[in-house]
């Protein structure tokens, strides 16, 4: 079991996704933006023109933060950085792939479900 200090300060959700998904979650109240020279935010809006490097950088920053407990990412966005998603093994923040309005969820692509199937020998 992980030490309590490894998860007790993880108060935020983060999201990397398309405009509709991010907007909906921000309206639900998950948005957090810090001020100052090192301003950070816990969300990234991705469109077809967004470069993969920007998505990778956001993923790396959000998964290294100690105040984020869960990172939600649209599955079609996760496909663009699949190798990073598959290499990510830390328990916190938990990375969960979610569907979007225009892209249905495909359980065969989900990295968490792939790991569960592998664990059970399927």
From TrEMBL:
Q: How does it sit in the membrane?
A: Peripheral membrane protein
One Pfam family from the UniProt entry? ATP-synt_F
Q: Which GO terms describe its cellular component?
A: fungal-type vacuole membrane; proton-transporting V-type ATPase, V1 domain
User: From the UniProt record, which GO molecular function terms apply?
Assistant: proton-transporting ATPase activity, rotational mechanism
The leader peptide range reads none
SUPFAM superfamilies for the chain: AtpF-like (SSF159468)
Superkingdom assignment: Eukaryota
Task: Identify the keywords attached in UniProt to this record, alphabetized.
Answer: Hydrogen ion transport, Ion transport, Membrane, Transport, Vacuole
Quick one: where is this thing mainly located? Answer: membrane
The protein's location, in the record's own words, is: Vacuole membrane
Family recorded in the similarity comment = Belongs to the V-ATPase F subunit family.
Q: Quote the function comment for this protein.
A: Subunit of the V1 complex of vacuolar(H+)-ATPase (V-ATPase), a multisubunit enzyme composed of a peripheral complex (V1) that hydrolyzes ATP and a membrane integral complex (V0) that translocates protons. V-ATPase is responsible for acidifying and maintaining the pH of intracellular compartments.
Subunit text: V-ATPase is a heteromultimeric enzyme made up of two complexes: the ATP-hydrolytic V1 complex and the proton translocation V0 complex.
Under which name does UniProt file this protein?
A: V-type proton ATPase subunit F
What organism is listed for this UniProt entry?
Orbilia javanica
